[in-house]
User: Fold this.
Amino acid sequence: MVVMTLYGILSITLFVLWIKHKSVLRQRQKLASKIGSMKGSLVHTSEKLDLLSRGVDTILSDAPEVHELLGVHKSLEAAESLLFNQGIPVSNSESCAIASHAAKSLLEHYEEGHPEEERVIIQGLKPLSKRLAAILTEAEMKAEDVELSANEHRRLGELFHSIERFDWAADCYHRANDLDPEDEEALRSLSDIQRKSGDLESLDKTLERLLAIVPDDVELLNEQLVLLDGIEDERGLRNLKRLEGLGAPTSLSVIDGDLSQIAQRARESGNGGPYSSGTASDWVEKATKQMMLGEFKPALESVESAIKKDQNFGHAWALKARLVAAEAGSMKDAMKCLRRANALGEYTVILESEILENDGRIDASIEVLEEHLYNSPGDSEARGKLSQLWLSSGSPDSARQILEKAPEEGWNSSTLHIMKGRLNLVDADFHRDETGKVDQIPVIDALVSFDRAIEIDRESGLAWLGRARALRYQGAFDEAEVALVRARRLIPDHPSISLEEAQLFLEIGDLEQANALTLEATTTLKDNQTVPFIRGIIAAKHGRFREAIKLFSDTLSFDPTHARARLNRSSAALLCDDLAMALDDATQLVEERPKHELGRLRRSEILMNQGDWESAESELRELLKLSHNHSMGLVHLGTCMIAMGKSEQAEKPLNKAIETNPKLSEAWYQRGLLYVDFGRSEKAISDFEAAVRTDPLHLDARLRIAAILHEGRDVEKAAAAWRQVLDVDSQNRLARRRLEECREQINSKREALVPKD
Assistant:
């Protein structure tokens, strides 16, 4: 019975298992069928994808730039995600970096072409530009929030310009101009937007900025004249003068025409041209325009035509005199023309003096003006010219006397005020030669004179040039640059403009730009002492002392009395270890100018380098007679005393130097050395530390501190001091060796403290 029961259970179990097996087999069949179907679908999909890939490859092979733009798309997509989905505040620097990265990614595919070429915007770049504009707009950003260079801002503006997002384009152009005021392209593009939008007020401002860069652009001058039509504005008169000088018509009707041809029409010859049947005045006008354009030979032909028309036209004879002197170089013929012009009632005094001056006959030029002023003392222009001649001849006192004799009504002329300002600057230069720094009192007086000249005549380029120099002497470099821009616009060809700009950049510390401008000045100022002097300063600042010596020598060949050139040559020679030249220059300077403090100081330093301590002491005591509290003189005197073994006498001048100028690191250092001699280590360290506080790069003071601490067995402090030496001079061998010794001692102490097993 039990057996039968067990058999029945086994049978039922086997049946159930068979049924399940069948079910599994059916499921497997279904699964296999599905897998087969999926394999077929996958093969089909794969074929489709392969076909699509080949299609994409074909497209990209025809337009590979589209492939590159995918990176821009990803960058913009990332910017959208980060800026809008993650809630980064717009003011956050991270948001600015994100936007800047997106903009730069876009600009990578927008290359600048040549100036004469149209910029080509590749397929697909415009939609991406629209997308960037939308992102920036939604983020409520401005161009200044996007961290790009001036060039990049201008190029981004061009992209926005191409998609007619004029708001963003203008913002980018403005930002480009802020970063680079000389970017002419950005301003021209900005003016185009303002012109089309009818924003005439903004357009006027943009045109003014452009004229500061390209003052002789006929189209710009005429366009601004249109804007100023009916408005009392001095700029209108300025533009008219400029256009007249360029020989360009000033009719408002020419604005819509091809303005590029105006200058060419001004150069037209008389054969069949508009002047062929003109009056003598017409021919003189034509000759004047040709002369302003530098075309002296055609100008001389035109003035001859004027004289043929009217033999008694005094202005024509005066112009012929100028042209004959400039073109033909015949002084005899020029003077004949002048006498004829004078006989016809023409004012020729200034012209005659200039012709004689250009011929090298300075005395004759002065005589002509003096004779004229005897009969006409109220002629301010002639008086100003005479004063300038005396100044150029190296007689500032005579130049000043000429101005002092001017009648009161003569001071209504800007010319006299300009000369007065120039003479004040000469005074400032003289005192700088004496003391090494500019006397600000004559500088202030000069600035007052130039400002008065500008009040009388705002179009006086010489007044603006003088104002720029006075402001530079005051250290007002930004204002000086503004005045120089104005001067360059009014007198672009004046030979002193580039030189003054070079000196300004030298003061600012932009040596590269200063050098470029100085080289530019050499083309117009052939025999000017200031050019090699500035180049010498630049060479010295670059450490090229031999070159500096040669350039200072060139300056001295022009003017052997140039104190600053001699002083700087002495300094350069000292740095080249040419002690003989250095001492000769310093000695000559002191002999010529016994009160020259810097000369005596430099001479004492050279004598100290030669080991002639007694002579150096004598020189320093002469210096201290001139200036009792001369801090460096006191320091050097203390140094001499220490070197001569008179340590007890050294403390007094060093104490006085510190009292006079507590920020003079060398005074603290020298007194520290004195205390070392006295064996007063704590006071010595205190003074050396004071030297380091006033000059963190004072290596000798740091070395002394470390050495005293090292000798005192204060290993921890000594190690710290040697590390500070290495912070200043990482290659200092002594500091490295001593620091290693300290470390070994510190490690030995630590090992000694470890208990032994």
About this structure: The chain has 38 helices and no strands.
